[in-house]
Specification:
About 40% of the residues lie in helices and about 20% in strands. By secondary structure, it is an alpha+beta fold. The chain folds into two domains: about 10-55; about 60-115, no CATH class. A four-stranded antiparallel β-sheet has the order 1-2-3-4, with no helix packed on it. A hairpin with a 2-residue loop joins strand 2 and strand 3. Helix 2 packs across helix 3.
């Protein structure tokens, strides 16, 4: 502990100069704008970043409570997606782009059972993220 005091003693004038410079900067208008602007930019950046993450990992929920339900959606290219939707008792495979949507096939019998689809709400994802992984059972004779 005493050795740390001897190591930090030569740095003391430098630290006091930095503290004085910070006080002078905080008194000026530029310092005020920096104090207010940087946290504001940080918060806006975090909001945009979380929005991009939610879009990237498809964390937004789709309202599937009406007569037409989106069962699955897969990007084919940058502009085209294949969607499996359920309308009434039939399931349809459609191609969706920015300009149009085309019905590719109509299935008479269900291809995917939509009741087996897992929920992707925040509470479920958060509990899965913080849940510790279970160790796998080992086989064989180990001491």
């Amino acid at each position: 502990m005493n050795n740390a005091r001897y190591l930090l003693t030569p740095l003391l004038p430098l630290l006091t100069d930095i503290a004085q410079a910070a006080q002078e900067t905080s008194k000026s208008a530029t310092g005020y704008l920096v104090q207010i602007g940087l946290p504001l930019l940080l918060i806006i950046g975090m909001i945009v970043g979380f929005g991009l993450l939610a879009k990237r990992f498809n964390l937004h929920s789709v309202n599937n409570k009406g007569p037409v339900k989106v069962l699955s959606s897969t990007p084919v290219s940058g502009q085209v997606r294949l969607c499996l939707i359920e309308a009434g008792d039939k399931q349809l495979l459609i191609s969706v782009s920015n300009q149009q949507a085309n019905c590719l096939h109509v299935f008479d019998s269900p291809v995917v059972n939509h009741t087996e689809k897992e929920t992707r709400d925040f509470a479920t994802l958060f509990s899965l993220a913080i849940k510790p992984s279970q160790p796998q059972a080992r086989t064989g004779d180990e001491p």
